[in-house]
Design brief:
- Chains A, B: Its cofactor is pyridoxal 5'-phosphate.
- Two copies of one chain form a homodimer.
- Chain A has helices at 3-11, 23-36, 52-61, 70-77, 95-103, 114-123, 152-164, 186-202, 227-242, 255-258, and strands spanning 18-21, 40-45, 64-67, 86-88, 108-111, 128-132, 140-142, 168-173, 178-180, 209-211, 248-251, 262-272, 281-285, 305-307, 314-320, 329-339, 347-351, 372-375.
- Chain A is an alpha/beta fold and 376 residues long.
- Chain A folds into two domains: 23-258, Alpha-Beta Barrel (TIM Barrel), CATH 3.20.20.10; 260-375, Beta Barrel (Lyase, Ornithine Decarboxylase, Chain A, domain 1).
- In chain A, α2 runs parallel beside α9 and α8 (186-202) runs parallel beside α9.
Chain lengths: 376, 376
Amino acid sequence: MTDRIRDFLRSRRDDGPCMVLDLDVVRDNYASFAKALPDTRVFYAVKANPAPEVLDLLARMGSCFDTASVVEIEQVLATGASPDRISFGNTIKKERDIARAFQLGIRLFAVDCEAEVEKIARVAPGSKVFCRMLCDGAGAEWPLSRKFGCVPEMAGRVLEQAHRLGLVAYGLSFHVGSQQRNPLMWDGALRSASTIFKDLAERGITLQMVNLGGGFPTKYLKDVPAVKAYGQAIFRSLRKHFGNRIPETIIEPGRGMVGNAGVIEAEVVLISKKSEADTMRWVYLDIGKFNGLAETMDEMIRYPIRTEFDGDATEPCVLAGPTCDSVDVLYEKDPYELPLSLEIGSKVLIEGTGAYTTTYSAVGFNGFPPLRSYVI
Amino acid sequence: MTDRIRDFLRSRRDDGPCMVLDLDVVRDNYASFAKALPDTRVFYAVKANPAPEVLDLLARMGSCFDTASVVEIEQVLATGASPDRISFGNTIKKERDIARAFQLGIRLFAVDCEAEVEKIARVAPGSKVFCRMLCDGAGAEWPLSRKFGCVPEMAGRVLEQAHRLGLVAYGLSFHVGSQQRNPLMWDGALRSASTIFKDLAERGITLQMVNLGGGFPTKYLKDVPAVKAYGQAIFRSLRKHFGNRIPETIIEPGRGMVGNAGVIEAEVVLISKKSEADTMRWVYLDIGKFNGLAETMDEMIRYPIRTEFDGDATEPCVLAGPTCDSVDVLYEKDPYELPLSLEIGSKVLIEGTGAYTTTYSAVGFNGFPPLRSYVI
């Protein structure tokens, strides 16, 4: 929560929930990443928040961009950033989207299997590709499934094939899991990466780059290590596994770049109990899983919530959204402590909501509009 | 799948996934409900699919409408249906939305606690209210949480309070769970309802209506009983618990009205394995949890998928969506049997997708547009 957001909300006249994002915080976050990892290029993960103001700011500061689709590529190009600052980082791409990206000047693509390499060789000849390796997401609050990547041995063969098909076998990527709270988690993947670098070098293929992925956390309720601690741990692992031949590195922060820059203002619509003897109150907000808080799925992300009654006595509450959908419940398995004095009509502030909120919003489920967002 | 949908898709030239909905099927479904429950008024659950063509058709056929928000109320009024055919069926409403609905002519509201009754008494004086009772959702594929409703004893007191505040204590509602495959599940709730009818009658309050909710299933992979079986089972329970004084009844089908009217056409973007020894293939589509298939959450709804290779040998596959989000996996715990001959670029048809797909779609997660829909 910043003074600028507080001032903005005080003067806001619109109705309904909204997310307010303070660009000053994004600016500080970018500077922290640049300082903590001075030899690493930052590729902002556009999917976390593609607001034009965010992309403009980061483009001006020199950031590069990790994109998931042609639309995201176009959003970045609209800032004036040149295509060589853009990675098409989705391992799952239609061949015609690769062709379109190539036409737009994109020359850096993610892959995790031979079929994807073949598509790129056909429609984006000569491009650089990096192969995503599977990586155990232990320690992450939003652990990644096996959806992206292949086992390290296969990654080597995928890159060999890229080389054979006239592409530049550029490097490797991995992702330690979103909201990763352990800075040491990069070490195992860097060890695997160094092995593949050596294996391919023996076959005459010189990899140049390791994409360290995202995973840098934003502070929700628990404290998280400073980005500096990540920089130090990663540098030590690079030194350990690559010695004096440290490759180019890139990072792809999304949540870590914009998460703590945003605050959602929401309203308490109803407070009730299910029976008169019930000790558990249900608190219903005008925002839920379908208009911004999708990351409460399985209660994975637990946002800090501020009310005007903080400091008063609290009681655990089930927190739910406003739709007629029974899965639109935010915290129930692990109820949320909220002030007893909280009232219907009270405003609440949901912090750390700058990432993965606005674009996750449903187009109009139950007739509720998508989350409104203001970038200040 | 209907011939009309097949013909439409054959001539379609747009790119990207889409949902095609055949109004003839909706017409048949409405007629089946009307025939199976001849003394029951049908309130279509607009949230299942608010496409104007669907609302227009149902309005012309005489349907009433269950709405979740002021926007949905306005969508129904746009068909020319009069406000007395609309229920504001969300138990979680802002007081200013109740006031707005009242201005629009709405006089029928759902409640499940005293605080909601107070709001309605203040801004929608004299309206009818019905109280939602909690109901065990056993047997449902999309079971409802405890989010809506209160225990039956409390429901009686909530209606008494409505009466005291000058509202019409109109009746009770319950919901046996979405995609409810057991027609006998209405019996227990009707028994509870009849007890409350008797209790309140003794205090001079005459309830008139039982809202039997939704829950009527659409056929996905498993066979479901015909709507006629539901009509018979419900009528038997009404007779058993209410004798000769059967109240007015309404039903709120959503999925049962439009689910089987829609088909999604999607494309295979990638087929890969995670290691060379892996026996499990990953099949990635251009549609996933964030652009239409949200109901695959926890693998709850399992849609039938048709391919041009049906009949060929199959193998279990993990099925996933196109976004860079690791939770965008449709079926993994219980992999999906798909033909070995399926290829990158193949089209697949996902059946039973007329309900809870288009509006659940994210505004633009990863830059992917919301699901396009055609109503024919």
